[in-house]
Design brief:
With 176 residues, the chain is mostly helical. It contains 6 helices and 4 strands. The strands form 2 sheets. Strands 1-2 form a two-stranded antiparallel ribbon. Strands 3-4 form a two-stranded antiparallel ribbon. Strand 3 and strand 4 form a beta hairpin. The model has no long low-confidence stretch (mean pLDDT 90).
Length: 176
């Protein structure tokens, strides 16, 4: 479900993902989803609805349904059939742009990395040595395409500002 406004300030990728910026777009998806969910709960508690203009009124249930569609997209209901959360489902990013995930552990490689050793691993096409379970990457581009390569920090880098808002959203859906 798409929520429209008489003064649109956000657009959607072809298959419904909120899309604001190609640079780690998932930060906008998770942050806005958290805010919309919080507002939906406030609307429900007050018994009010949101007048979006153009004869469209959104209820709390409409807003929650929208947020759920974003979470579903993040977790794999998308054209790539890929979860953008590392370790969730069968198809998820395996070559994320993250040093600790891409370099082997000290147990597997006890010597320090000298010179270009780390760069050789960075430029390898092999999956990362360590799975950063629960990390959410920057996400697909506007065309709903994600290329799983550690070279692309724009789409493949996990960050706390992407993950943090999603925690509250997932907690809500765990309870409801």
């Amino acid at each position: 479900m798409k929520i429209y406004s008489s003064t649109p300030s956000h657009m959607f990728a072809h298959r419904g993902l909120l899309f604001r910026d190609d640079d780690a777009n998932m930060q906008h998806v998770t942050g806005i989803s958290f805010l919309v969910l919080t507002y939906a709960k406030s609307l429900a508690n007050s018994g009010k609805q949101l007048d979006c203009g153009n004869n469209f009124v959104a209820t709390s249930a409409d807003l929650i349904k929208f947020v759920k569609s974003q979470v579903d997209y993040i977790l794999g209901t998308n054209p790539m059939k890929m979860s953008y959360m590392v370790g969730y489902g069968d198809n998820y990013p395996k070559s994320i742009h993250h040093r600790g995930s891409s370099l082997p552990s000290v147990h597997a490689h006890p010597d320090s990395f000298n010179g270009g050793d780390g760069w050789q691993i960075f430029h390898s096409s092999a999956p990362n040595a360590n799975q950063l379970t629960g990390a959410l990457v920057g996400g697909p581009n506007f065309d709903d395409v994600y290329i799983d390569t550690r070279f692309d920090s724009t789409h493949g880098e996990p960050t706390t500002y992407i993950n943090a808002p999603l925690v509250g959203v997932l907690a809500y859906f765990t309870q409801h």
